[in-house]
Amino acid sequence: MGKHAAPAEDQRPTEVTLDRVAVLLEGLGLEPLAGPDRLVIGAHAFTAAVWVDYARPMCLVVDTADRIPTDFEHSTALARFINTWNHDRVGPAASYRLMESGDLRVGMRRGIHIKHGLSDDQLAAELIDTLEHAATFYQQARERFLDAGLDQPLPPQLMRKQDSDELLGRHPSLRHIPRGSTHDTGTVPELYSEVEEVLSPVDVEDLTAALERLDFRYGVGADGIIATGVNGVAFALTVDGQPGTRYVRVTGMWDTGRDALEDFLPLWLVCNDVNERTCATATYLHEFDGLIHMHAESTMFAGEGAAPAQVVQFVVSAMAACLAAIDHVSQQASGQSVVDWPGRS
User: Fold this and answer.
1) Could you tell me which of 35, 56, 38, 58 has the C-alpha nearest to residue 48?
2) Alpha helix (H) residue ranges in 146-293
3) How many angstroms from the chain centroid is the CA of residue 234?
4) What is the pLDDT of residues 223-244, one digit of tens each?
5) Helical residues (DSSP H) of 116-261, grouped into ranges
6) 62: Cβ–Cβ under 8 A, 6 or more apart, which residues?
7) How far is the C-alpha of 274 from the C-alpha of 201, rounded, in Å?
8) Could you state, in order of their start, the residue ranges of all structural domains in the chain?
9) d(CA 254, CA 232)
């Protein structure tokens, strides 16, 4: 297979900053509020905070929260709704957390890999795709779980207050940490690394090239799905979707052996904890023959193409993030990790 050609207008990725994101959002007709460490976008059903996460992998994060919380009585049904969404959709991962009021706050988070930067078209496509997914999710969640009398725009004054609180309040990266606690700052931050490569369409050949650089064995099915294994965990890699809305998907899988009905909620709550904490991957449960399979998945929007270095960095980071998620869930669920880490006795 010959290597594909680059687009006529060669776009090179450049560093992603909040100032650059703000200008792009304004060009899309939005009016973001700007703070030193985040941007905030107000929408009908949610607020969105945009910030840069320097933990590995370095990401531009879009963090959304509902404007009206959900009654706790819907907790189990909402869990299944969120799991189905994360199972069926690419893009931002949904989760919920219990508020001090006893209600449930539903959020979505999307980490966009930016170690090697993004072109203007890549950045715009990622943001549009993320916000469109969020709008659809919150609309469906409102229709299902919110009283019909409440499913209407809040007063403008209250919406401005919520947006201001999101801009000036606690940083969204701390949403899973109890108040008064702080981040573990022992990890080395990841910084932008410039590449000179131009963007080109992404196909399965690019993913196999990344695996070959890692010296991984793999097989490619007739459907274009790449199968491989890392540290005892099965992985599938693919390029999914139609031209213009293509995604690179990296999915790690663990057969829990648990009953799909009786054990759903305890396992899902551990997955939900991962989705609250991480920017790099989504976890969800998949039923197969009455048993639960846990999936950890990272996605990259590839509708505008990508530079080879972006693809390699994404594949490496995605596999590491999926392994970390499966490690955490399996330890919490069974007391030991199913990941065969090097050097583990």
Assistant:
1) 38
2) 156-168, 204-213, 264-277
3) 20
4) 999 999 999 999 999 999 888 8
5) 120-145, 156-168, 204-213
6) 48, 49, 50, 92, 108, 109, 110, 112, 127, 130, 131, 134
7) 31
8) 18-174, 204-334
9) 10
* Rounded Cα distance, 112 and 110, in Å: 6
Q: Does the domain made of 18-174 have the CATH classification 3.20.20.30? A: no
Give yes or no for a contact between 135 and 43, defined as CB atoms under 8 angstroms apart. Answer: yes
Phi then psi for 253, rounded to 5 degrees?
-130, 140
CATH architecture of 204-334: 2-Layer Sandwich (3.30)
Residue 91 buriedness (CB in 10 A; 0-12 / 13-18 / 19+) = buried
Q: Which two tokens stand for residue 217?
A: 């064995």
Cis peptide bond prior to 57, omega within 30° of 0: yes
Quote the CA–CA distance of 127 and 124 in Å, as a whole number: 5
Residues 162 and 47: beta-carbon distance below 8 Å? yes
- Cα separation of 34 and 125, whole Å? 21
Edge-to-edge strand ranges of the sheet holding 93-98: 33-34, 39-42, 46-53, 59-66, 104-113, 93-98
Q: 323 in helix, strand or coil? A: helix
Structure-token pair, residue 290: 């009455």
Q: What is the spatial distance between Cα 267 and Cα 244, in angstroms, rounded to a whole number?
A: 35
Q: What is the pLDDT of residues 111-166, one digit of tens each?
A: 999 999 999 999 999 999 999 999 999 999 999 998 877 777 889 999 999 999 99
